[in-house]
Each structure stands twice: as structure tokens, then as C-alpha cells.
Design the sequence.
């Protein structure tokens, strides 16, 4: 993530307002690769693509978290809340996927987690495209 963090500003200058859309599309594409191209080489490429998309999206969230606070002293608190939300999401993914396995009776499928998270990512992608002009997913000129 460190290298991507250094390359983020040039990426944002190139992609401008579509930066977050492209980052989310990378994540969706990576899960599609996991599901539809089952080979070791494609898993490596998909993992890199997912990491790149996440590495572009995360710093944007952290920047936005510091913008919503009213005083400078609360910016650290906003980052703490964002980290709690981030790690809570990471911790809950196995529980949510396990519940999805039970609901859809997919206890032996090895590909189910990738399909399930890929569909969830695609839904988020559609939401990002629709809400790209609003604060959370939008990119103002201050970013690039």
C-alpha cells in the first residue's frame, strides 16, 4: 500500500473525477477474474488488481474523514472511527460469507466466497457510479 500511496496523486491527476469509480471497478474485475478465470496466474493478477483498487480507495476515504470534522483536534478521532469501521468490516466478512453459505446451501463450494463478495462489490460499484457527484464518492478538484 505504501507504493500505491506514493502513486496516488499522479493517478488522481490522470483519472480525476473517475478515480474512485476506477478503483471500485478494479476490485469488481478482480473478483470476476477469480470466478471466471481459474488459473494460478490469473489469481496473482486478480490479487494485484484488488490490492491496487483498494490501495487507491483507502487513502481517499482517510482524506475525506478528516474533511468532515469541524475542528482540527477532531481529525484524529475521525481517523480512529474510520479504522474501527475498516477493521470491523474485515472481521465481519467471514461471518457474512458464512451466513451466505448457509442461506444458499453452498457449504462445499470453494468459489462461493468470491462470487458472493464479487456480487456485493458490483452492487457497491453501481452505487459509486450513481452517487459519484456527491461528497462520499465524488472527487473535487482539491484532490488532484
Sequence:
Amino acid at each position: 500500500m505504501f507504493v500505491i500511496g506514493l502513486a496516488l496523486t499522479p493517478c488522481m491527476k490522470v483519472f480525476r473525477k473517475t478515480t474512485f469509480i476506477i478503483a471500485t471497478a478494479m476490485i469488481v474485475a478482480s473478483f470476476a477474474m477469480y470466478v471466471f478465470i481459474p488459473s494460478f496466474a490469473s489469481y496473482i493478477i486478480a490479487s494485484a488488481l484488488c490490492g491496487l483498487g483498494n490501495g487507491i480507495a483507502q487513502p481517499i476515504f482517510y482524506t475525506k474523514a478528516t474533511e468532515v470534522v469541524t475542528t482540527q483536534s477532531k481529525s484524529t478521532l475521525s481517523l480512529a472511527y474510520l479504522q474501527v469501521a475498516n477493521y470491523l468490516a474485515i472481521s465481519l466478512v467471514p461471518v457474512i460469507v458464512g451466513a451466505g453459505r448457509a442461506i444458499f446451501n453452498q457449504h462445499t463450494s470453494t468459489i462461493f466466497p468470491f462470487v458472493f463478495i464479487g456480487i456485493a462489490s458490483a452492487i457497491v460499484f453501481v452505487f459509486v457510479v450513481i452517487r459519484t457527484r456527491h461528497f462520499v464518492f465524488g472527487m473535487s478538484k482539491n484532490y488532484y
